[in-house]
Automatic annotation (TrEMBL):
Gene3D superfamilies: Lipid/polyisoprenoid-binding, YceI-like. This is YceI family protein. It comes from Hymenobacter antarcticus. Keywords: Signal. Residues 1-20 form the signal peptide. Residues 37-212 form the Lipid/polyisoprenoid-binding YceI-like domain. SMART domains: YceI. PANTHER family: PROTEIN YCEI.
Length: 214
């Protein structure tokens, strides 16, 4: 709980009392040109994941290793984040041996191939405001290129973004279809007769990115 509490408090401070204002005039790659880069703070940022199968599910964390948010005025207009795929943990699995087997499988070639592809990246290409967003709601749509296991796909998802007092933040949730990145193991979309051994194609990432002006 403590791991997620501190980043959450930082995000609240960055979003302040008017998050929608920080979402105004955010669009196009043009605005990101020459925009200052705020360095991602790995120790303050969090990334959670959740995947499900027919009979069960697991959830856990991964760590950001580096990145930046590009800021123009009081708006996030671009950026790139890098995830260390070798930091994956399943926080719901308490037994060390079971944890090791599970992470070993997820890190292997059936899934993320962490030895060959030790990082995944997301590059923001646009941040568009959501008009009329409520104070505590997502205030922008982020569009960018996600690269997992060497495969790049474009994704769009809602998020809450803000810039205040030399800090920038982006927080939200994105659902990813793993099969679009070549992760087809256990997918009933590609294999018949899996029964209750089938694993859902979609998994969720919940992110809280905190970046600081250099």
């Amino acid at each position: 709980m403590q791991k997620f509490l501190l980043p959450a408090l930082f995000a609240v401070g960055v979003f302040g009392t008017a998050p929608a204002a920080s979402a105004q005039k955010m669009n196009s790659t043009k605005m990101a040109t020459n925009a200052p880069g705020y360095a991602l703070q790995p120790q303050l940022s969090t990334l959670g994941w959740e995947g499900k199968a027919v009979t069960h599910g697991h959830n856990g964390t991964m760590n950001f290793s580096a990145g930046e948010l590009l800021v123009k005025g009081n708006a996030v207009v671009g950026g790139t984040v890098i995830v260390d795929m070798k930091t994956m943990k399943a926080t719901d699995i308490k037994d060390a041996e079971t944890q090791g087997k599970f992470i070993g499988h997820m890190s292997g070639d059936d899934f993320f191939g962490a030895e060959k592809f030790p990082t995944s990246t997301f590059k923001i290409v646009s941040v568009a405001p959501i008009k009329g967003a409520a104070k505590e709601a997502d205030n922008a749509t982020i569009t960018g290129d996600m690269t997992i296991k060497g495969v790049t796909q474009r994704l769009s998802f809602p998020a809450k973004v803000g810039v205040k007092d030399g800090m920038a933040a982006a927080t939200g949730k994105v659902t990813i279809d793993r099969t679009k990145f070549g992760l087809k193991y256990g997918s009933k979309s590609f294999f018949d007769s899996l029964g209750d051994k089938a694993i859902n194609d979609n998994f969720d990432l919940t992110f809280n990115v905190i970046a600081k002006k250099g």
